[in-house]
Structures are given as C-alpha cells and as structure tokens.
Recover the amino acids of this structure.
C-alpha cells in the first residue's frame, strides 16, 4: 500500500498515484535538478504532492548537506 493510497486531489478530486518525479528548483540563482523524488501525482490534473519527510530530505539536499552525485550543466541529485 503506497503512501498516497486512497488520497484524493484537493483541487479536482482525482485519484493520487505515487510516482518518481524530477524536480527543478532555483537555488541562489542557480538551477538544480533533483531526480527520482517520490511524489503523489493526481491522475486527472497532474498536481504533485510531497510527503513531509520527502520535503525535509529535499531541503537537506538542496542546502548542500548531501553531495551531488554527478554534475552536468546543473548539480544532479537523486533521493
Ligand atoms: Zn487533481
């Protein structure tokens, strides 16, 4: 049973399914790409939802407490 099992989208009421997504964030003027982020995605409108623990990990990742796994044009992180 996934974290998002039985959850409905708060915007359209659609079903939310768990997916791995890539996130782009602009941090201090630089774009970073965070790959493989677990998220709940609405099947109807595509709205993404993130669990609190995922957001915390994202924050830590973005603020440099974890090393980039590889650098291409932007630092690339994977959760
Ligand atoms: Zn929706």
């Amino acid at each position: 049973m996934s974290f998002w099992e039985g959850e409905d989208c708060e915007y359209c009421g659609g079903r939310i399914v768990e997916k791995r997504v890539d996130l782009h964030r602009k941090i201090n003027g630089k774009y970073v790409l965070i790959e493989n982020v677990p998220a709940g995605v609405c099947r109807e409108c595509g709205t993404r939802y993130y669990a609190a623990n995922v957001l915390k990990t994202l924050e830590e990742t973005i603020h440099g407490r974890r090393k980039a796994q590889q650098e291409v044009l932007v630092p690339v992180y994977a959760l």
